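Side project, low priority. Logging it here so it doesn't get lost.
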Amino acid sequence: MADTFKPDTVHTINPLDPKHPFLFINNDEDATHIKSLTVHTEGTSSTLNPELIQFLNRLRCLERFVIHWKTLNWVMLEEQELGALVQLFSLPSLQRLEILASANFPLSLLRYFTGSKLCIAATTLATAVMPVFPTDTQARERGALIDLSLVGARNIREFRTYIEWQGERAFASLCFVKTLRCSVSWREQDEKPGEFNKDIGSLLQRIGHVSSGLEEFRILDWQNNSFDGYQFTQSDLASLTSLKRLHVQLGASPKADEKTMETMDYSLRRWLFPILNSLPSPALLEHLHVMFSFVVPFPWPSDLHTWMRTFSIDLDEHLASTFPSLTIANMTFDLRGAHTKPFNWQNFNDSIRPERLQTRGVTSTFRAEVYRP
């Protein structure tokens, strides 16, 4: 049993297993050794049995808590069930909360969260609807959340609604957020390609009302095809007045019969440069990481390499003249489907070296990488 409770062990419990060893822990001392816990099941029930509730209530030193329970419906939980989960959110030791799969996770629960890092995955459906809270649970006057990760267009929209509907609670939960990560890696049904950027822009406008200190923004937008949608505007990014670090990744796919890289060049320029040109405080930006992931048609388009070279020159000139405080600037072309044909990529990467940035003393690498499945 001693090996089971090593401090660095990542523990997992099936909440529907009535014979799991953790349910038979009968003293608080053993429970204090559990630092990382994942509640994971593919079962169809969403009920927390009394033994599980008793076990959760024994945890006092948890640092990382992960929930992967697709059928867990938060707004349908009984008070005792919800209380067992909420008390874990409010543990002083808790640093990271990951809601990877569940239904109707109430964003108003963030007012009880004491950790610094939160991830809400696409397989979790968040909601701005307020559940009935346990009467003896104390909300924090100010949250400690620093790093917020939202995955999925629906969750991003729901988070925006949460800020609109519950402004005071949202402020208490989000006022210290420094890092915001927004990702969509597939399109929801009937989702238009440009809607994601519009949702992000709307969220940023709202989050600026509750947190004025965002220093890092990360966005991943994986398109099903080329990008020809909504472009970010200055009003969308107006809240990023303190931004120091920007990580952006766009994924796109040309049509299989395309003979040139024209649509990929159009997609990347139309997506990236409005972001760079709309930042309210360009003089503050210190780190920039750009990745463009795209599928290379076969046979290779005739302008595959000349396009990447031309784009690299343009980006190098733009960054060197626009962002005086840059210390790190990287550009990666992530090529998908190009591994079947030999090519000297090292020589190519030498040819797209960002000379203007490097002359300025910026640590900068522009390169093409072939993704190998």
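Brief comment: Residues 179-187+241-371 form one domain.
Revisit when time allows.
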